[in-house]
Amino acid sequence: MDVATTGHAAAFWTGLHLLLLLVLSLLVVRQRQKHKVALGDEGIPELAQAIRAFGNATEYVPAGLAALAVLTVVQANPLTIHISGLMMFSGRCLHAIGLSGSGGTSFPRVIGITMSWLAYIFMAAALLFYAIA
User: Fold this and answer.
1) Cα(20)–Cα(68) distance, integer angstroms
2) For a FRET experiment, which of 13, 40, 127, 128 has its CA 20 to 30 Å from that of 27?
3) Is the Cα dihedral 19, 117, 100, 28 positive or negative?
4) Strand, helix or coil at 65?
């Protein structure tokens, strides 16, 4: 297995996840500036949704990136890393879109969390496979 190819795959998805976190952070800042709120959400639904979209991503993305890093260390097949990264990134994007649009249940939010969980399951299975293979 070419470590460079595996590493490049992980770097690609890590870079995209970091950009997603940056965008979500900027959306929080924009809402804070718009509503002149420095701390908390002051009961403003749009700000609360932006904060939760960012917060939820920061709760899920680090573990996903750690899994990608370990998959790289064990020289997993680049396709495994790409599938993992795509599932996680798509899930996080959809979840953020759904949560940003509505504080309640929405189709993108449900699909997003489902994809994130499936990515976790896929990465956990891959990690266990490489651990015992």
Assistant:
1) 16
2) 13
3) negative
4) helix
Spans of the chain, pLDDT less than 70: 1-4, 103
Rounded Cα gap, residues 4 and 73, in angstroms = 11
> What does the alpha-carbon distance between residue 133 and residue 114 come to, in Å, rounded to a whole number?
28
Over residues 59-68, the pLDDT tens digits come to 999 999 999 9
Q: Is 123 exposed, middle or buried (0-12, 13-18, 19+ CB in 10 A)?
A: buried
Domains of the chain: 3-132 (1.20.120.550)
**Among candidates 28, 122, 112, which has minimal Cα distance to 71?**
122
Show Cβ contacts of residue 82 under 8 Å, excluding neighbours closer than 6 positions.
Answer: 9, 12, 13
